Amino acid sequence: EGISGVRTTKTLVRETENLADFRELTGRMYGASVRNAIWSSIYMPMIFSLGSIGVALALWKGGVEVMNHGMTIGDLYMFISYAAFFFVPVQELSRTFVQLQAAQAAAERIVGLLETQPEIRDKPEVVEAVERFTRENPGGKPGLAPDGLGDRIDTIEFRDVHFAYKAGQKVIEGFNLSVHRGQTIALVGPTGGGKSTIVNLMCRFYEPTGGEILLNGTEYRRRPLGWLQSQLGIVLQTPHLFSGTARENIRYGRLDATDDEVEQASRLVNAHEFVMQLEQGYDTDVGQSGNKLSTGQKQLIAFARAVLADPQIFVMDEATSSVDTETEGLIQAGIDSILRGRLSFVIAHRLSTIRSASRILVIEDGRIVEDGTHRELIRARGRYYELYTNQFARQKEDEILHSPS
To answer: Is pLDDT at 67 greater than 90 in this prediction?
Structure first.
C-alpha cells in the first residue's frame, strides 16, 4: 500500500507518519520472529540432550556390568552404538517437525482461503442440470446453454427487487425494470443512489435480498452462474490490463481469436490507429497493469477486449469519465456499433455520452424517479433537466475561464 499510494503520501506529506507505522509493524514482526527463534533454539538442544543422556546411562550401566564381568567390552560398544543409532532418526524427526511448524501458519491461511465457499454460487439443482446435460451432450448443442435451456438472452426483468449490503441498510427497495434486446439503458443520478448496485445485481456479483431478476422469464438463480457471466462485457472507469502485449490483452476477451479478429475489434472502437503508432504495434509490451499507456489508451484496449468477447450484455460503468475529450469522442464514435443488438447498461456522469440511449433512468435512493428518452426528459424539465443544464453550464463556464482573452 505504501508503494502503490506513494503519490498520495507525498502530496499529503505523510512520509514520517507512514515510517512510524511501518516501524511499529516491523517491530511486532521482529518480536514474534525472536520468540520463535528462542523456542526453536531451546527445543532442538532438549532433543539432543535427551539422546546424550540415554547414551550416558547406557555407558554407565554397561561399564558397571563389564567391571562385574556381566558383559564384554564388545557387547557394551555394540549396545552404545545401537543407542546412538536409535536417537538419530528421533533428532531428524524433531528437526523436520520444527520446519513443519514454521510452514503450518502459512498453510492454514492458504487452505482457509481455498476452502472458503463463495456466497454467490450455483444451487444444487442447477449443478445437477449442468452435469446431466454435459453427460448427454459432451460437445454441447448450438443455441443451448450448459443447463440445456436457451443460450440467447432477449429480456432482463427486475421484479420488486430489494437489496441491502447490511441488515437494516437498504440500498435498493421495490425496484422494477424490464429491458429488451437492442435497448440501451442509461443510469444517471447522484453518487450513492444505487446505480452501480443495480448493475452489480444484474451481473450477479450480488444477489437480491428480496424480489427476483428474470432472464427470458426464468429467475436467474436457476441458471448457471458461469454461463451468465460469460455473456457479460464490462468496461469499468479504471481499466485493468495485464502484463504482456497489446494483442494479448485484447485477445484475453476470447483466447481463440485470430489476429485479424483482434485488429477488427480494435478498429471497431477506434483503438487500431493508436496501437499501430506504438513502438512494435500490437506486439508492444504494455507494462505491469498497462503502466506504459495513458488512461485513455488503456480504456480503448479494454473496450476492444470487451467487444472481442462478443457479449450479449454490455456494461459501461463510468467508462469515459477518466479520459480526455478527444478520446471520449473516439469511444463515443464506436459505441453505437458496439451496443447495437445487445442488452446494454451505461452508468455515466457525463450526460453527453448517453443522449442516444433508448431509455434514461434517473436513480435516487435506489428508486427510479424519472424514465424516458433524452428528448422526453428535457421536455419534462424535471430532475434530469436540472442535472443536464447544470453540467453544461459548468462546462461553458470552464470554457470561458480557460479561453485566451
So the answer is: no
Q: How confident is the model at residue 204 (pLDDT cuts 50, 70, 90)?
A: very high
Q: Does position 307 have pLDDT exceeding 80, yes or no?
A: yes
Question: pLDDT class for 130, splitting at 50, 70, 90?
Answer: very high
Per-residue pLDDT at 393: 62
Tell me the whole-structure pTM to 2 decimals. 0.73
- The three-state (H, E, C) secondary structure of the chain, written as one string: CCCCCHHHHHHCCCHHHHHHHHHHHHHHHHHHHHHHHHHHHHHHHHHHHHHHHHHHHHHHHHHHHHHCCCCCHHHHHHHHHHHHHHHHHHHHHHHHHHHHHHHHHHHHHHHHHHCCCCCCCCCHHHHHHHHHHHHHCCCCCCCECCCCCECCCCEEEEEEEEEEEECCEEEEEEEEEEEECCCEEEEECCCCCCHHHHHHHHCCCCCCCEEEEEECCEEHHHCCHHHHHHCEEEECCCCCCCCCEHHHHHHCCCCCCCHHHHHHHHHHCCCHHHHHCCCCHHHCECCHHHCCCCHHHHHHHHHHHHHHCCCCEEEEECCCCCCCHHHHHHHHHHHHHHHCCCEEEEECCCHHHHCCCCEEEEEECCEEEEEECHHHHHHHCCHHHHHHHHHHHHHHHHHHHHCCC
